[in-house]
Specification:
Blueprint: H1 3-12, E1 13-21, E2 24-31, E3 36-40, E4 48-51, E5 69-72, E6 79-80, E7 86-87, E8 91-97
Parallel strand pairs: 1-8
Antiparallel strand pairs: 1-2, 2-3, 4-5, 4-8, 6-7
C-alpha cells in the first residue's frame, strides 16, 4: 500500500467498529462503498484508531491498511517513524463497540 492508497482508504472510511472476538475485540473499518476492512484481528479494545502516512504497525500484515494504523486511548497520538522522528496521524477515528 502506498501513500495515495492510504489517503483513498481514509477518505472511504464510514465508521470503525469493534466486535467481540474470543477474549478480545476485532476492529473493522466499515467503508462508504459497503465493504469492510479488518484493522485488528483480536486484542484489547482501544477507543481510537490513528492512521498514518507511513507503515507504523509492525504486527499488521504487510501491504494492508492495518499496517498504517495504531490503536490508542486518544485521538492524534503521534507515532515514531523509522528514522526516529515523531509524526502526527493523517486521520483519527473513534471506535464504536458493536451491540
Amino acid at each position: 500500500m502506498d501513500n495515495q492508497s492510504i489517503i483513498a482508504f481514509v477518505a472511504n472510511v464510514n465508521s470503525v467498529i469493534a466486535v467481540k472476538a474470543g477474549k478480545g475485540f476485532k476492529v473493522i473499518a466499515e467503508m462508504k462503498d459497503g465493504s469492510e476492512v479488518v484493522l485488528k484481528k483480536s486484542g484489547k479494545l482501544k477507543p481510537f484508531v490513528n492512521v498514518f502516512d507511513f507503515a507504523c504497525n509492525g504486527n499488521a500484515p504487510i501491504d494492508t491498511a492495518a499496517e498504517f494504523c495504531t490503536f490508542n486511548n486518544k485521538a492524534g497520538v503521534q507515532a515514531m517513524t523509522w528514522d526516529s522522528h515523531r509524526k502526527s496521524p493523517i486521520a483519527s477515528f473513534q471506535v464504536t463497540e458493536a451491540a
